[in-house]
Amino acid sequence: MTIDVRRALVRQLLAKDPTLSARAIALQIGVGKDTIRRDLEEIRQEQSQPPPEPEAHAPDDAPEASPVEEADAPRDPMDEPLSNWLTPEARADLAILLEAGHPLGFAIRRALEVLADAYRGAWESGIYPRGIAPQITHVNVRTRRSGGTPL
Hints:
The chain is an all-alpha fold and 151 residues long. It is 54% helix and 0% strand. It has helices at 3-16, 22-29, 33-48, 67-72, 82-85, 88-99, 104-124. The longest helix has 21 residues, at 104-124. The mean pLDDT is 79.
């Protein structure tokens, strides 16, 4: 997770609950509280600075992209901010993974790996044609021994 992504998550959490402590934020994101304290200090400094001056315009002879060209340009879905897809349901799902002790970045990566493995397996085995999302009906979970280790 990059610093910018982490700080965006910190801002989102604070927007929902401004009373969160650095420790509580650190637990949710999966980093140390000192890292969050530094992030909070940086965020406060950013908020106390005046907004930047508007950028100088390009020379009049420079061609400008028309709004139609910009709208027609293919967009990389990876550029979409995390907050656009992090619905309340997705947040609740992530909370379950965090409750199991996983840091946020690991939880997201692992969830994506599990889902992608299921898709890949369905495509490679020919159960579904490549590019068609398979219907996932269940997930297998290994039985746990009474001592805490998997069988």
